[in-house]
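Protocol step 6 of 9: fold each sequence in the batch and record its structure tokens directly after the sequence line. For illustration, a two-sequence batch is reproduced in full.

Sequence one:
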Amino acid sequence: MNSGYSTPHRGVLILVLGILGLVFCQFISPFAWAMGKSDMEKIDQGLMDPEGRGLTQAGMICGICGTAMIIFALLTMVMLLLFAVVSGAIV
């Protein structure tokens, strides 16, 4: 199973984190994004097994989408709060 690479890929883990971040708990998404980015750099440098490239990319993309959902939700909450304050609903 040793293919000459110093580190095995973590594609399955990153994909699972990315999917969990999209479906259940978005706060996991930035971790999937960061881990995916790190592993993609290692794969590109030839330090990690490139066999997991597709899984790693998919997990990283899910992490990016989940992180975007967090940002959108936070911005929406801030806008709603500001609207409530400006309209006088919250004193």
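Sequence two, same batch, same settings:
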Amino acid sequence: MEYYLFLLLTLGITLGAQAYLNSTYNKYVKVKNSKKITGAEVARKILDQNNLKNVKVVETSDTLSDHYDPKEKVVRLSTDIYKGESIASVSVAAHECGHAIQHKDGYVFLRIRSSIVPVVNIASKAGYLLIVIGLIAGFAQLFLLGILCEVIILLFQLITLPVEFDASHRGLKQIQDLGLVEAGEVSSARSMLTAAAMTYVASVATAIIQILRLVLMSRGRN
């Protein structure tokens, strides 16, 4: 019974965080910023101000698919953010530029996260496969190895938290320093960035719950 409670708790946290983000995004994507500046213009201004003229700003089609690509040195913004003149557009664009600034500055947690990506990719593919095989075949060692893979993924998510919060902090500072929105709109931008950050907090919480559930399953089999 406790296994199902863990699953329900995990689902509740994940859906709750996503609902919070979607609700906040849908609210602020409809609120025009008083400067009538687009996300693309915000990104370009922040990048140029931070001597990142070599970083391109391009449009992508998927909603909330915005990200900074350190290999290609590109800030990719979804259409609503790229072309929009909303508070959400300013906030998201500034956040992604925050990652570009982190990359330029050699932000330690970003470097650590990037260095362990290959290991995390292997762990994410192998983790539950090892767990399932361990359960079916009765191999406790494989089951425990699968749990170890999930711990590696959790470590990656924990390292991601300061990366995302710092990018939001840098982005918000750029918004204020460059006067990209009026003073009264800064709190709205902060709310948008906070909602996005909560999805990463939820990912950590759900990963911890999943690992606890697996540990309990392991003890139950002994």
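Proceed to step 7 once all outputs are recorded. Observation for sequence two: The mean pLDDT is 92.
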